[in-house]
Amino acid sequence: MSLEIKVPALPESVADATLVAWRKQPGETVARDENLADLETDKVVLEVPAPAAGVLREIRVASGATVKAGELLAIFEEGAAGPAAPRLGPAARRVVGEQGLGPEAVAAASRDGRVASKGDLQALAAAPEPQTAAPRPVAPVAAPPVAASAAVSMRSGRVERRVPMTRLRARIAERLVQAQQTQAMLTTFNEVDLSAVMALRARHKDAFEKKHGVKLGFMSVFVKAAIEGLRRFPVLNAAVEGSEIVYHDYFDIGVAVSTERGLLVPVLRDAEQLDFAGIERAIAGYAQKARDGAIALEDLTGGTFTITNGGVFGSLLSTPIVNAPQSAILGMHKTQERPVAVDGEVRIRPMMYLAVSYDHRIIDGREAVQFLVTIKDCLEDPGRLLLGV
Question: Taking the model in full, what pTM does it have?
Fold first, then answer.
């Protein structure tokens, strides 16, 4: 039975989406719920699942096209089996999509169920068609083939590529510029000795993982320390709405996650109610969803404060941009052994620079500095987090 594959319902306030890529090609046999294509909005990437086991028969919308909810994308044959489906590598898949080759043609180019190379498919696409078919248009020799998503220009033997921003990247750019234009943003810094936190983790990490089934990382400690700082200085957990300051008496902490498609900030809801294991479990779950491209819109909305860790990429110091409409963001950085003065002696300690960027319209420097000092105190003496002092 033939089924129509349509664009699924889009998130609220999202008018359309871009069909980023087809994950399956015509003639391929797919399992129920297997991803057929990726749709990208300015907020999240959506998958188009197969409604049943069967074969993708026909693609109606090309990659890169803008589509709306309910629009026809493809024709699917439920319960059918494709021809001895050859296994295609990424390069071969791209040729199939660009040339519009059908399953029979692909099978003809395969040997022992596998296409030898993309060259086989390119040769097949360039081969003369049967006399009964209409002649294929021939492009002028002087015009090199250019991918639809990139404009190429030649200059003195050097190649330049112009690739449109993804919708997600464009939305990130828009929000960051908006934050800088609408907030009086300022950054203050401090440094923290992580000796105590590292010793605590080394002492209990095995027992922690055995009991809770998740690894003990550093982020849960930073989240707990940030919450303690926000309790003492609630204006850093607030937001500006018109001429009013909205104070949040709950702590929805966003944790920035870098993905291939751009920066995402999933939110730990009511983080003050989570223990260390709950925080680590939630972060691990979001990280996996981000890698799988399965982050949902509701995972990304409603945060009151954000933590970002540039240290995982080697950053020693930075000035993070506030994730509007929030009013502050904590930046973590690379842990690096440095000589420091301890009780009148020079010691080598694992040190990290911390940064908090904040909206100076409602947050005074005194509050931002003392907030950061609170985090420093909690990290250098983790017992404070247990005792609330």
Answer: 0.66
